[in-house]
Design brief:
Order of helices and strands: HHHHHHEHHEHEEH
Number of helices: 10
Strand order of the largest sheet: 1-4
Length: 228
């Protein structure tokens, strides 16, 4: 472990520079520049891939692209170029297509920021809600009026209980899903006999995130990021 004093940090940096020079046969500055250029190239390729898929999404719909505001387009391509997961990359392409759709509603500047804060698991849970409601014959305008039970979401998204619980916390933080409350079957009574009676009483309920649904924001966001 390196001591984090200025002297030790400088020494460690010099040692790393020598190591890089030995293995690459160039100065550390050149190696650093090569790495930076490579990262820029990788992000450039990802950005171009996102744009190309967005173009195809619009072409499939027969839509003409419109100009996208800079406060939407710049963070969208910047953050999207960091996506390593193919499914998440498709969601960035879909969001770009939605932003550029001449017949669609304008995409809020918050949407690229929200997508950047979602993991693949979070996005799959949102997809699972939408897929289940669509399969159940619900119309999109009804999506915010109903909730979906956790077992169905986990089954469709193929996520573990832990992944689901953590993901729902993040989706709640971003206001994409409705918080479970006693008006829905989202709570259950604690019935462990080892617990005090006051805790096991009907008035003490445990939030199990058992049933969640879209908020208005969540539905609008999901539709904007939904690949064709």
């Amino acid at each position: 472990m390196i001591d984090e004093t200025p002297k030790e940090i400088a020494k460690a940096t010099a040692e790393v520079a020598k190591f890089l020079q030995k293995i690459f046969g160039q100065s550390a500055e050149q190696v650093d520049g090569i790495v930076a250029d490579q990262l820029k190239f990788v992000r450039f390729k990802r950005g171009m891939k996102i744009a190309e898929k967005a173009r195809l999404f619009l072409a499939e719909k027969g839509r003409e692209p419109r100009q996208v505001p800079l406060n939407v387009g710049v963070p969208l391509l910047t953050e999207g170029s960091l996506a390593e997961d193919e499914e998440m990359s498709d969601r960035w392409s879909a969001l770009l297509a939605s932003s550029a759709d001449s017949e669609g509603s304008p995409v809020p500047p918050s949407f690229p920021k929200i997508l950047a804060e979602l993991s693949g698991t979070d996005a799959k849970s949102l997809d699972a809600i939408g897929s289940f409601l669509s399969g159940a014959g619900k119309k999109e305008e009804e999506f915010t009026r109903v909730t979906v039970h956790a077992p169905r979401i986990k089954g469709i998204a193929r996520v573990s209980d832990e992944e689901y619980q953590i993901g729902v916390d993040n989706l709640l933080r971003l206001n994409l899903v409705t918080p479970p409350n006693s008006s829905f079957p989202s709570f259950k009574k604690l019935e462990d006999e080892s617990l005090p009676e006051s805790v096991r009483s009907p008035s003490f309920l445990m939030n199990t995130k058992d049933s969640i649904g879209f908020t208005a924001l969540g539905l609008r966001f999901w539709l904007a990021c939904k690949p064709n």
